[in-house]
């Protein structure tokens, strides 16, 4: 409503008459109250941010140097003549609304908007998920344009190098495991010479200062495609799975992982992992718990990437019901008590309320996972010209931060960091 009100000398006079402050009409230069010219010059700047940057001349048309010389000589500029910017033909002439509060005042210039910005984002907030495989070539992932299963010896190292170049120093690894190595109990998960431990050692050797997060769950190693061991009646066995996960996390820690990240949603796994890590002397290895991980359809493209779709059924007996909010507090309390260092919410954008809930109920750092489906939707809509991919990407990441996420796991990490570094697309 306020945005349609534009000033003309006529309605400013109406304001003067009504407010009864006794100022002379704005039509006369000599009697212009201070607010007049200020409003006017602000209006000029607001009209275009580029114009503001290019404004090396005073409104009088003289150069800044000429204005300074005059000021030194004691000649100060007179208030500019009051010429109100013209409104388009047909704009209704109305009395300005009588409002003490006009929130738009705090948005009127780039400098003010920057000063009052509540949320910031930097490449340091990003964790880049990387898919790895045993192959030498990088294989494109159909459902995730721009993402690849990276060859662990070549493509992966190059990707990490490029990410570091734009300030992304944190990575989480997801392995594509050959079918021959999968089993019902997922024992390949704790093979010290398996793909993940080998890759960690290689990365740490080449880039000692990066932070390596690992995924702790059986699904990439399970012939059933589930995060845990499946009993013959289809039940996912909790405590037996946790036993395997402890061996997996210890193996990752031994290889040099900085943060192990259980994404499996078994009960009690945080406490068990903490004890197992400590028992082996890994007191400094952190645990990022997938605290509120929902049984979401937004994981579809990821499961294609790893070929890890559950062979039967779904994950609803361990991942949370997307309809639930309070239940996230139960998981939060358990993870905090059991010694989690970071709490994660997944997916990200459709679950902003859960991110805020955890932010307000825990002092621990909060992570948000912008998952594969969120990534692919933005990519697809961008490719079809329906949205501006880069702007929607940056906005979605900022929104995750605003909701309360400290770090964001995102496939956009490199692209977004490049934008933040002023390096434009890609
Ligand atoms: C499995 C795991 C999944 C994701 C991360 N770890 C998939 C699942 O739970 O089925 C999904 C990530 C994404 O969609 O980007 N432990």
Automatic annotation (TrEMBL):
This is Delta-aminolevulinic acid dehydratase. Homooctamer. GO terms for cellular component: chloroplast; cytosol. It catalyses: 2 5-aminolevulinate = porphobilinogen + 2 H2O + H(+). GO terms for molecular function: porphobilinogen synthase activity; zinc ion binding. InterPro entries: ALAD (IPR001731), ALAD_AS (IPR030656), Aldolase_TIM (IPR013785). Pathway: Porphyrin-containing compound metabolism; protoporphyrin-IX biosynthesis; coproporphyrinogen-III from 5-aminolevulinate: step 1/4. Residues 75-110 are annotated as: Disordered. One of its GO terms (biological process) is chlorophyll biosynthetic process. Its EC number is 4.2.1.24. It is found in: Plastid, Chloroplast. It comes from the Eukaryota. Belongs to the ALAD family.
């Amino acid at each position: 409503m306020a945005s349609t009100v534009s000033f003309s000398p006529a309605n400013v006079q109406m304001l003067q008459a009504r407010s009864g402050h006794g100022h002379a009409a704005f039509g006369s230069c000599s009697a212009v109250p201070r607010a007049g010219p200020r409003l006017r010059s602000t209006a000029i700047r607001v009209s275009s941010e580029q114009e503001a940057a290019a404004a090396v001349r005073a409104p009088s048309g003289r150069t800044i140097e000429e204005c300074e010389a005059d000021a030194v000589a004691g000649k100060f500029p007179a208030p500019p003549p009051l010429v109100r910017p013209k409104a388009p033909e047909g704009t209704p002439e109305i009395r300005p609304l009588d409002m003490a509060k006009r929130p738009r005042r705090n948005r009127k210039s780039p400098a003010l908007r920057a000063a009052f910005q509540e949320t910031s984002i930097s490449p340091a907030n990003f964790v880049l998920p990387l898919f790895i495989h045993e192959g030498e070539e990088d294989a494109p992932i159909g459902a995730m344009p721009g993402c690849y299963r990276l060859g662990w010896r070549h493509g992966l190292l190059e990707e990490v190098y490029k990410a570091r170049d734009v300030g992304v120093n944190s990575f989480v690894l997801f392995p594509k495991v050959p079918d021959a190595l999968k089993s019902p109990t997922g024992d390949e998960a704790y093979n010290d010479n398996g793909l993940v431990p080998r890759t960690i050692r290689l990365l740490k050797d080449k880039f000692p200062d990066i932070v390596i997060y690992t995924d702790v769950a059986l699904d990439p190693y399970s012939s059933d495609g589930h995060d845990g061991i499946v009993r013959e009646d289809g039940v996912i066995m909790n405590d037996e799975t946790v036993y395997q996960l402890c061996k997996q996390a210890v193996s990752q820690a031994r290889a040099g992982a900085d943060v192990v990240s259980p994404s499996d949603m078994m009960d009690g796994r945080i406490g068990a992992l903490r004890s197992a890590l400590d028992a082996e002397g890994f007191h400094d290895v952190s645990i990022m718990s997938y605290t509120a991980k929902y049984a979401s359809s937004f994981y579809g493209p990821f499961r294609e990437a790893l070929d890890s779709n559950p062979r039967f059924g779904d994950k609803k007996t361990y991942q949370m019901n997307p309809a639930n909010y309070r239940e996230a507090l139960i998981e939060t309390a358990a993870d905090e008590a059991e010694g989690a260092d970071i709490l994660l919410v997944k997916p990200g954008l459709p679950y902003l309320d859960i991110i805020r809930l955890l932010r307000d109920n825990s002092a621990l750092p909060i992570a948000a996972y912008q998952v594969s489906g969120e990534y692919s939707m933005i990519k697809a809509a961008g490719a079809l010209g329906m949205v501006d991919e880069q702007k929607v990407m940056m906005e979605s990441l900022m929104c995750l931060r605003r909701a309360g996420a400290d770090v964001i796991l995102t496939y956009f990490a490199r692209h977004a960091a490049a934008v933040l570094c002023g390096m434009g697309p890609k």
